[in-house]
Amino acid sequence: NMESARKVRWALAMTVDQQSIIENILEGRGRPIYAWQNILPNDPSHKDAWLIPHDADKARKYLTDAGYPDGFDMELWIPSTFPPGTKSAAEAVAAAWRQELGIEVTIDKTEYAARRPQTVDKTINVPFTHGINWIPGSTSARYICPNAGHIVGFTMEEAMCDLGLENATEQDLNVRISNNITIQDYLTEQMLFVPMFQAPAVLFAVGPKIDAWDPYNAQDVLPNRPESITLK
Questions:
Q1: Which of 7, 58, 71, 168 has its Cβ near the most Cβ atoms within 10 Å?
Q2: What is the DSSP track for 73-135?
Q3: Where does the Solute-binding protein family domain lie (predicted)?
Q4: DSSP 192
């Protein structure tokens, strides 16, 4: 049932030791994160209710309550073309699931470009590693609601999608942020994303030949849009 499925997802999340990943894999270059909306714990909008304890004992209890005391088999897609730190972190999480929960994880290392079309035609049927980089108040719900493009493997219920997709036309930033906070409440309750870490921002050095560059689009905080570059 759906409650058992929710407990399984929470068990997976509570087995992730973010601090260990940050210290031992990322060599200290990272921070814990709990919100898919890219709201960090030090943000005034962040809620304590979003925090995920690292608690393997409780995770095992949840898995037992859900009917899987001995674990189960699952596939996890960790794209081979992702950054080394991300791949190593995801592999460490898979190892923890095996050790702590008895889950036999088979890792698929197919490169991202080869399997991404399945996220567009909606045939993707396994959990997979991915990153986020939303700006505050973005229409991030477009990736977790029915649409013609890329989604992350599931869709939220209609009421949540109606609220989240309002951000595409809502002019008030505070309203958009409030909408995303409500969405995050739902995502955390259902544990539809299992967070691993927040990585430092990528820095770009702009040379003296660049006259102007508008690097950001309406959604993301990572520099992009090279077509907007003009030279002196």
A1: 7
A2: EEEEE--TTS-HHHHHHHHHHHHHHHHHH--EEEEE---HHHHTHHHHTT---S-B-----BP
A3: 6-130
A4: -
Angstrom distance (rounded) from CA 170 to CA 49 = 27
> Residue 195 contacts by C-beta under 8 Å, 6 or more apart in sequence?
13, 16, 18, 32, 33, 34, 35, 36, 52
- SS3 of 198, please? strand
Place of tokens 């979003």: 50
Please name which of 187, 142, 134 lies closest in space to residue 164, comparing C-alpha atoms: 142
Among 192, 194, 181, smallest CA distance to 49 is for: 181
pLDDT tens digits for 82-131? Answer: 999 999 999 999 999 999 999 999 999 999 999 999 999 999 999 999 98
Alpha-carbon 39 to chain mean position: 12
Considering only CA atoms, which of 38, 6, 52, 33 is closest in space to residue 181? 38
H or E element, residue 207: none
Domains of the chain and any CATH numbers: 2-136+189-200 (3.10.105.10), 205-232 (no CATH)
Give CA–CA dist 199/78, Å, rounded: 17
Stretch (H or E) spanning 212 = strand 210-212
